[in-house]
Design a protein that fits this description.
Elements (H helix, E strand, L loop, with lengths): L7 E6 L3 H12 L4 E4 L16 E3 L9 H18 L5 E3 L2 E6 L3 H12 L5 E4 H7 L9 E6 L3 E3 L1 H14 L3 E3 L4 E6 L4 E5 L4 E9 L5 H4 L8 E10 L17 E5 L6 E3 L8 E5 L5 E2 L10 H14 L7 E11 L6 E5 L2 E8 L9 H14 L18
Parallel strand pairs: 1-2, 1-12, 2-9, 5-14, 12-20
Antiparallel strand pairs: 3-8, 4-8, 5-7, 6-7, 10-11, 11-12, 13-16, 13-17, 13-18, 14-15, 15-16, 19-20
Helix pairs in contact: 1-5, 1-8, 2-5, 2-8
The structure holds flavin-adenine dinucleotide.
């Protein structure tokens, strides 16, 4: 890792979920870090806002994520100790569907490959244990204890504070318009006209990554996703919706997008959303208004699963997934520029990994390799670059 004469060792573009953890990890390891964010800190225009994110271990998407998750949990705990705020709440997690559903099969596969403690509950046991739920008779639930909630705004704030405390220079309202790299340095152009130079560059630009990495031709698609907060029904027993009696959950029912949600965490209401909308968007022109049809579709699904939570919709917020074709991440060194590291394409399930992605990015910048298993995320796997 060469610092050269530049004022910074590394520039990180994007200070959302991934970028905030990357600047923290890089600064903690003694690098002179500059971070550039186009909006203000903790903005709600990207992919990391909305008060809560699920973290879980028995990962239905692929067992290869489990070692990363183990490290992510440790790093979130470290960050929480360094911060005065709660970042994580353990609620347990419930993956519900028919025995042959991709969600249940994938969760059990990961649990068995990695010997993760879990319980399988049939519909009767589910209702007894979590009385607010209404499983269909042919559904089962896989329960795992370590799953819970991350509070994304608090996580990002804590990571930015660690970075700043270790000397990182973080600039907000500073859109990057382009970058270049040669054998000696990287240069980053800001909309203000100024140019920053450093030995290394990290691109954590979320839904905007496709533009900054146009030379890679990554097949990224931005999907609009809306989260909703519902008031419990009048007369509902709120205690049954609180974390002691209701874990975070994902529900996989045939013919519907997966529904996921949270217990009642605060007076904002019960949050629930569909995992996919099938609506693709451009981050610059994303439709942020939410219409009644969208609210009603989620409320109908919630009514069938958690009827007491399906009251008035208190708020909705649009957010973006940055999807790869296989829905696995893109993390690694830029194939044409050794000095550039890329972390994008988190495909709607990345937040829980931000802490370990920060560590991986720091490994790749400083050591050019990482001990973490990231072959699933190979930058060149789609062939375009
Ligand atoms: C509704 C919703 C629910 C989700 N639920 C979960 C969940 O329960 N669990 C989970 O693990 N994951 C979940 N995810 C996914 C997770 O939140 C994302 O994968 C993760 O937040 C992506 O982080 P990021 O850093 O890539 O993007 P962002 O946090 O959006 O950060 C990218 C940043 O780069 C900045 N930027 C872009 N271009 C430039 C530029 N040119 N110059 C300067 N700055 C720039 C942007 O402004 C932004 O701040 C969810 C996502 C959504 C939308």
């Amino acid at each position: 890792m060469a610092g050269g004469n530049a004022a910074h060792d590394v520039i990180v573009i994007g200070l959302g979920g991934m970028g905030s953890c990357a600047v923290a990890a890089l600064a903690r390891r003694g690098l002179r870090v500059a971070g550039c964010e186009q909006f203000h800190a903790l903005h709600d225009r990207g992919s990391s806002h909305g008060r809560s994110r699920i973290i879980r271990l028995a990962y239905f998407e692929h067992p290869s994520y489990v070692p990363l998750l183990r490290r992510a949990y440790e790093l979130w705990a470290d960050l929480e100790s360094a911060s005065s705020r709660r970042l994580y709440l353990k609620t347990g997690g419930l993956m519900v569907g028919r025995e042959d559903s991709p969600l249940v099969c994938g969760t059990l596969h990961s649990a068995r490959v990695h010997d993760l403690p879990h319980e399988i509950l049939d519909a009767t046991a589910l209702r007894r244990r979590f009385p607010a739920t209404r499983p269909f008779p042919d559904e089962v639930g896989v329960f795992e204890e370590p799953a819970g909630v991350l509070f994304p705004e608090a996580c990002i704030e804590a990571a930015l504070a660690v970075a700043a405390a270790h000397g990182a220079q973080l600039t907000f309202s500073a859109p990057v318009t382009g970058w270049s790299a040669d054998d000696h340095a990287v240069r980053v152009r800001l909309a203000s006209g100024s140019v920053l130079e450093a030995a290394h560059l990290v691109v954590c630009a979320g839904a905007w990554a496709g533009r900054l990495l146009a030379d890679l031709g990554l097949p990224l698609r931005v999907e609009r996703n809306v989260m909703h907060w519902f008031a419990p029904l009048a007369g509902a027993d709120h205690a049954l919706l609180e974390p002691a009696r209701l874990p975070v959950y994902i529900l996989d029912r045939p013919g519907r997008p997966m529904l996921y949600g949270f217990p009642l965490l605060d007076d904002a209401g019960v949050k629930a959303a569909f995992h996919h909308s099938g609506l693709y968007a451009d981050p610059e022109t994303l439709e942020r208004r939410v219409d009644e049809t969208e609210v009603n579709a989620v409320r109908d699904a919630l009514r069938a699963w958690l009827p007491d939570a399906a009251g008035e919709c208190l708020a909705s917020s649009a957010c973006m997934y940055t999807l790869t074709p296989d829905e696995h991440f893109v993390i690694g060194r830029h194939p044409h520029h050794d000095r550039v590291v890329v972390a994008c394409g988190f495909s709607g399930h990345g937040f829980k990994f931000c802490s370990v992605v920060g560590e991986i990015v720091a490994d790749l910048v400083i050591d050019t390799v990482t001990r973490h298993p990231i072959s699933l995320f190979d930058v060149g796997r789609f062939g375009a670059c």
